[in-house]
Amino acid sequence: IGVHRIGPRLGWVPATLFALNHSLLTWSFGGLETPLFLFLLLLGAYGLFVRPTRWAVCAFALMALTRPEGYLFLLAGAPYAWGISPRHRSPSARWLPAILAGLLVGGHLAFKLAYYGSLLPNTFYAKVCFDVEQLPRGFQYLGAALTSYAMLVPAAFFLLFCPGDRRLRTSLLATLGSYGTYVIYTGGDPLPGYRLALPLLPLGWLAVVTLMRHLPRSTTAATAVVVGLLMLNSASHGLPGAPKGGAFEHFRRDKVADCG
């Protein structure tokens, strides 16, 4: 994605710094579904903005099967995938990706409802209280995560002020806005490293590499960008005074036992 957006000279920088992020490194060896979720997110972004194809919707459908918040990415990405003109004008090229994604998601929801009697996993209900008391925790969690992921500062600059790339900007704003609202509403996550906020990183880097493309193509500017990104990435452990960790003790006691 970086090479496509800004060329081979600096295209490797965002991927390298993303791979070196401390939270990503931690959860890459955590044994949970976090790396798969991020991979599917990048695969969907690749299918939307690098090699546009309607099949990108299937990546977002698989995200919905991986984690509950995957439905947000499916709802945000599906309209943009549908707006991509298929290479072939046959009915299968036009409808097959949407049909397959619908079968995946619909079949998964039907199975969960029939087998578990609920559309969401029990751990979700154990962590989320569905009341206003968790909103301050959500704001605290999201604010701490954004402070920790300092590279989101240039990403926000791109989303707000950078000219051009209207399709990408609106897609990222819709996705980041809905996902940020979800994080606030659910009150964050009790696990360390701001795991719930990790999907903000690849989307933020997508905005950063696009911002880099609009900078002057001079050696001085390129060097300044690389050094600046390195400094921001080194600050990803948290800026001075930033809250550390992500231990939020707000499990519902009546549900903890049911989670094993």
Which secondary structure elements does this structure contain, and how are they paired or packed?
Layout: H1 2-6, H2 12-19, H3 22-28, H4 34-49, H5 56-66, H6 70-82, H7 91-115, H8 122-127, H9 134-148, H10 152-161, H11 166-186, H12 200-213, H13 219-234, H14 253-256
Q: What this model shows, in words?
A:
- The N and C termini lie far apart (40 Å).
- The radius of gyration is 19 Å and the shape is globular.
- Helix content is 66%, strand content 0%.
- The chain is mostly helical.
- It has 14 helices and no strands.
- The C terminus is likely disordered.
> Average pLDDT value?
76
Determine the oligomeric state from the structure.
single chain
Quickly count the helices: 14
DSSP strand count: 0
Distance between the termini: 40 Å
In brief:
The chain is mainly alpha-helical and 260 residues long.
Name the features.
single chain, 260 residues, mainly alpha, 14 helices, disordered C terminus
